Give the backbone structure.
Amino acid sequence: MSGETQWAAIRWREREVRVEYLRIAAERTDAPLVVFLHEGLGSVAMWKDFPQRLCQAGGFRGLVFSRPGYGRSTPRDADEVWDVDFMHRQAHEVLPPLFDALGIDEPPWLFGHSDGGSIALLYAARFPQRVAGLVVLAPHIFVEDVTVAHIEVARDTYLTTDLPTRLGRYHDSADSAFWGWNRIWLHPPFRQWNIEAELDAIACPVLAIQGVDDEYGTLQQIRGIASHVPGVQLMELPDCAHSPHKDQPQQVIDATVSFITKRRQA
């Protein structure tokens, strides 16, 4: 990803952490701001050029950042174990101080993938007046057997292949990123994690996109959002797995630009 990466300092979990971020087209001061929230193993760098492509197509400004524990942001402490509420804590405790630190006082559009999509939903549910709208790709709203099965496969792959080396290209600590995500998803109490009831508080427009061939979840995830949030726009993409912005990037860009543009004009 091109551009100059910077860092913001926030207080989280009783210590100061630095958050890696990148601004896109900051000079477009009157354009809508799109904030990108990465997946469970993502980072600023792992988005590659997709955020720039989306912002260029829509004439948007962008903010891409790595959550604490990921990318070049502060890694987890060696003894830091995330609990079942780890996505709630990111939505409720990390996003607000990050936005404050970066001087973001306008309601942004949140573009979230996988865990990032869940975090976007949780933020919009807790702070309905602080978000303009959501675009969520393959979000999780409850835990499915297929999700756990593939995360178990990911664990075995991490232990037996060069995956740690490959992830190390995108994270200061591959272990921090991988085990923070993997261990909690495979923690037995996490099987009861469910945010469906919280979705009722969402008041902004929502576009929910998922691949028909998503290996980490069924279409009941985005259809479940539609059953709780009136007016949700669903997009179910054929020939697409868990990363629609990689498998069908132009379709995702076109749908997102149209969605944001029409909702702003409404």
Notes: Residues 6-265 form a domain with the Rossmann fold fold (CATH 3.40.50.1820). Strands lie at 6-12, 15-24, 33-37, 61-65, 109-113, 133-137, 206-211, 233-237. Residues 159 and 190 are 22 Å apart (CA to CA).
